[in-house]
Amino acid sequence: MSRNFNVAVVGATGAVGNEMIRILEERDFPVQELRLLASERSEGKLLDFKGKPVVVQKLTKDSFQGIDIALFSAGGGRSLEFCPAAAASGAVCVDNSSAWRMDPEVPLVVPEVNPDDVAKYTKKGIIANPNCSTIQMVIALKPLHDFAGIKRVVVSTYQAVSGSGQKAIDELRIQTGELLNGRPAKNEVYPHQIAFNCLPHIDVFLDNGYTKEEIKMVNETKKIMGDDNIQVTATTVRVPVFFGHSESVNVETGKKISVEKARELLSSFPGLKVLDDPSANVYPMPIDAAGQDLTYVGRIREDETIENGLNLWVVADNLRKGAATNAVQIAEILAEKYL
Predict the structure, then answer these.
(1) Run of H or E residues at 138
(2) Smallest Cα–Cα separation from 133: which of 231, 255, 237?
(3) Residue 1: per-residue pLDDT
(4) Which one, 19, 44, 240, 335, has the greatest CB density within 10 A?
(5) Predicted confidence band at 32 (pLDDT cuts at 50, 70, 90)?
(6) At residue 44, does pLDDT exceed 70?
(7) CA distances (Å), 212 to each of 218, 235, 282, in order?
(8) At 275, phi and psi to the nearest 5?
(9) How far apart are CA 261 and CA 276, in angstroms?
(10) Which domains are seen in the chain, by residue range?
C-alpha cells in the first residue's frame, strides 16, 4: 500500500466496533484519519487508537466527507440508512450487518474464499461481511469443494453469546454469578436463561420453522461459494460461552476424500489450522480460538453412512474472524488493489 486512508468505524462503541479499532491497530492498517461514529448516546466518548484518544462523533449522513473506507457494525437498520450516504460521499462501505448480504449488486466476501468478488463493490459502493457462522464454515468448505465438489452440508452451530453483543456478554456473566450464589437468574437479552443452558434459537423463527440465522447460513454459503447447487441445512444454537463459535459440519462430496487427504487440503489452506489428534485430546475449542484470527478444524473423520462423506468440527472467534478481522481484511484488499 503506497498511501494512507481515511477510515470510519460506524458503531465504534459496540463489541464488534471496538474489535475493528483494535484490529486496524494490530494489523497496522495505513490509517491517515480514524473517524469513530456512533449514536448520540456515545457522542463525546473517548476511545484509544495507537495510544491516542479519539473522540466518538454522532453518526449523521454528513459524517463521511473525505472518508475512503467505512467499516459498519451498527445494525441492519442503520446500514440501510447510512451506507448509501457514505457511498455517495465517496467511501466504500464494508458492512457487518445482514442488510446488504443478499443484494445481487453487493459482493459478499470472505477474503480466503472469494477475494476477487471485492471488485464488484463499484455497483453500490458496498461490500457485505457475511454472518459469523458462515465465514468460518466456508473457509473450511472451500478447499474440499475445490477438490471434490460439495453436494450437501448439514451444520449444527454452538454459538457464543458475544454474537448478540455486549449486553448478552453481561447477561451470561451476571446470570452465572447469581446462580452460583443460589439466587434466581433474570433474562432480558434472551427469551430464556442462557447460563448453564443451550437455546436452539438464534434470531427470529420463520414460517418454515427455521430461524433467520439458519437461513442466512444456507443462502450466504451458496453466494460466497458461487454455487447454487450446494445444498445446506442448518440448526443454530446459542450456548453459554463468551467468545468463539463452534460448528459440527457434515459434508457430502462428489468424489471421495480420505481423512488423510482432507487433512492435507485443510492444512494448506490460508486462514485454517488443523488441530486433529484425538488420541492426545487435541481438537479445536472456543478457548483456543478466542483472540485469534485463524479458523480451527479437527475431529476430521469419514461419515460411514454415505459413500463420500466427512465430519468436521470447526471453531473460530466470532468477533474477530467472524466479524471485525474479516472486515479489515476486505479493507486491506480494497486498499491494495482498488483504491
Answers:
(1) helix 132-148
(2) 237
(3) 55
(4) 19
(5) very high
(6) yes
(7) 10, 11, 33
(8) -120, 95
(9) 13
(10) 5-129+323-338 (3.40.50.720), 133-318 (3.30.360.10)
Distance, CA of 74 to CA of 244 (rounded, Å): 21
Between the alpha carbon of residue 44 and those of residues 10, 32, 38, 63, the distances in Å are 14, 21, 10, 15
Residue 37 CA, chain-centre distance (Å), reads 21
Contact of 334 with 69, CB cutoff 8 Å: yes
DSSP 8-state code for residue 168: H
- In 3D space, the residue among 295, 270, 271 whose CA is nearest the CA of residue 284 turns out to be 295
Cell of 134: 458462515
Q: What is the pLDDT of residues 93-124, one digit of tens each?
A: 999 999 999 999 999 999 999 999 999 999 99
d(CA 6, CA 31): 6
How do beta strands 52-58 and 46-49 pair? antiparallel
Q: What is the chain's length?
A: 339
User: CB under 8 Å to 80, separation ≥6 — which residues?
Assistant: 99, 100
Burial class (CB in 10 A: 0-12, 13-18, 19+), 46: exposed
b/e 293-325 (16+ beta carbons within 10 angstroms → b): bbbbbbebebeeeeebbbbbbbbbbbbbbbbbb
Q: Which residues are catalytic?
A: 132, 245
Q: Is the pLDDT score of 300 beyond 80?
A: yes
The whole-angstrom separation of Cα 178 and Cα 181 is 5
